[in-house]
Structure formats: C-alpha cells, structure tokens
C-alpha cells in the first residue's frame, strides 16, 4: 500500500508465489572493439566453434571476381572467442530517506513541468498542508513522479503516514499519493565468465578496402561451408584507426 501509484497494463504471465521476490537480471554488455577487427555472429553455435578452432583464416579480397593467381589479393585474420563477464549474484541495499517523499498519481494538466513543480513546492512548503520548507524538488521522467526533499527531519515521516492528500493546483483539487523515497545501492555483485556461443571476434584486418566492401568480403568468406563457415546472422567491422563498442543482449 505504500508503493507509488502507476497505471499499468499487464501483458505477462503469472508466476508461482515463491518466485515473486526474485529479481530478474537482463544483461546488456558493452564490449569495446579495437580498430582492424570485426564481430561475426553465426546462426549456429557449432559454426562459430569451428571457425575458432581453425584459428587463422586466409580471406580472398577479390570479392568473387575471377582473377589470375598472381593478381589475387589475400589477407590473414585471426579468429578468437568472445569472453564476457555476466552477473551471477546481486545484492541491493535499500535505504529510506528521512527527509524526502515520493509523490505519485499526479494529474495530467495542460501546464509545463516547471509550473507543476512550482505548485507542488508551494503546496508542500506550507505547514497547514503538513509540509515545511522545501529544500529541492525533482521530476522523475521515467515514472512521472516527483521527489520532494524537506530541510527539516520528521516532515516526510508525517506526510508518509498520511498517505494521501488533496493538492490545490490552479482552480482544481487533485488527490495524490505520498510514499517513502527509497534509494538502492549495490552491496554485492558477483560476476562469472561466459563465452558467447555464436559470436567470433576477428583480429588483424588490414585497412585495404572500404568499410562496406570489407564487411561484404568477410561475410561472403565466412558463410561458405567449404571454408568452415555457415549462415551469418550479423557482422560488424571496425576499420583500422577507429574504435567501436558492441552491445550484447540476452540470446
């Protein structure tokens, strides 16, 4: 009952009661890529494993053109696995602020965000409304809620016990909900190494073709079964002299 109000539409699945207090983590790993490298993700994990086992690959840069042997240009690239760290356990310490409140259930009015904050600050700064001098007021864009911090201790506690109040905004009165303002700190985070099963990192790619041409050449080479490859799901190439960041999400 102390949680802030937020209108939601449930589109998920019900779970067992014993799972209700579990926190589900969805990893989103940012992986730095050096210049002269490429990440290639295959549709099948066994293809990626085969490419890694072969280690060194000679890539023909003729892009499928039928050239005489002396005119052909080839480069050697190294294939290595992609190892990342994933969270295996997380402990969060929750702390309730003694001087702040969370105001939710705010009305949708045709006024600016700053004007709404000013009116809330004015209302909660008055002792007749149960408030006191306001130190700061902050709008939370992700939830549409407001955090009010008072200069005196005890004010927030009294308002939280009240739970709801009628706020005068313009010519109308609107009921809002007052909840504790909680903050969380990561007290313990444990990581475990994990290898991407379908993705391979290619290193040592020289800057001899344009970015688009090199991407196409690498994809053509590594999707051929005769060279140990298979169907390519995605490929990202970073030319020499530049750096990139790849983002891995749960498969």
UniProtKB/TrEMBL annotation:
Organism: Dryoscopus gambensis
Predominant cellular place of this UniProt entry's protein: cytoplasm
Subcellular location: Cytoplasm; Nucleus; Secreted
Family (UniProt): Belongs to the NMI family.
Keywords: Cytoplasm, Immunity, Innate immunity, Nucleus, Secreted
Any one GO BP annotation for this protein: innate immune response
This protein's name: IN35 protein
Residues annotated as domain NID: 38-136, 146-233
Pfam families named in the record: NID
A cellular component term, taken from the record's GO annotations: extracellular space
Originating gene: Ifi35
């Amino acid at each position: 009952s102390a949680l802030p109000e937020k209108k939601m539409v449930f589109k998920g699945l019900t779970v067992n009661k014993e799972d209700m207090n579990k926190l589900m983590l969805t990893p989103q790993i940012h992986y730095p890529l050096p210049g002269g490298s490429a990440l290639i993700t295959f549709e099948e994990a066994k293809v990626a494993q085969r490419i890694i086992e072969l280690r060194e690959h000679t890539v023909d840069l003729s892009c499928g053109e039928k050239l005489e042997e002396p005119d052909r240009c080839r480069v050697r690239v190294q294939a290595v696995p992609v190892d990342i760290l994933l969270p295996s356990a997380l402990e969060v310490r929750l702390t309730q602020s003694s001087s702040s409140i969370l105001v939710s259930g705010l009305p949708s009015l045709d006024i600016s965000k700053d004007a709404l904050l000013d009116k809330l600050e004015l209302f909660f700064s008055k002792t007749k409304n149960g408030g006191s001098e306001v130190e700061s007021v902050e709008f939370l864009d992700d939830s549409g809620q407001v955090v009010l911090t008072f200069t005196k201790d005890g004010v927030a506690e009294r308002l939280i016990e009240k739970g709801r109040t009628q706020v005068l905004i313009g010519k109308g009165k609107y009921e809002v909900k007052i909840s504790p303002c909680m903050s969380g700190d990561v007290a313990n985070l444990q990581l475990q190494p994990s290898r991407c099963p379908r993705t391979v990192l290619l290193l040592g790619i020289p800057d001899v073709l344009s970015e688009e041409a090199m991407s196409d050449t690498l994809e053509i080479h590594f999707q051929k079964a005769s060279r140990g490859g298979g169907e390519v799901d995605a490929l990202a190439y970073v030319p020499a002299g530049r750096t990139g960041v790849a983002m891995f999400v749960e498969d």
